[in-house]
Amino acid sequence: MKRPTAPWGVLAFFYKEAEVQPMLTFLHLIDKMSTKIGQLFSWLIVVLTAVIVFEVFTRYAFNHPNPWVFDASYILYGILFMMAGAYTLSKGGHVRGDILYGFFSPRTQASLDLILYFVFFFPGIIALTYAGYTFAEDAWLIKEMSSVTADGPPIYPFKTFIPLAGFFLLLQGVVEVIRCVMCIKAGEWPKREEDVEEVDVEKLKASLGKN
Question: Mind telling me which residue stretches traverse the membrane in this protein (predicted)?
Answer without folding.
Answer: 40-62, 74-93, 114-136, 156-175
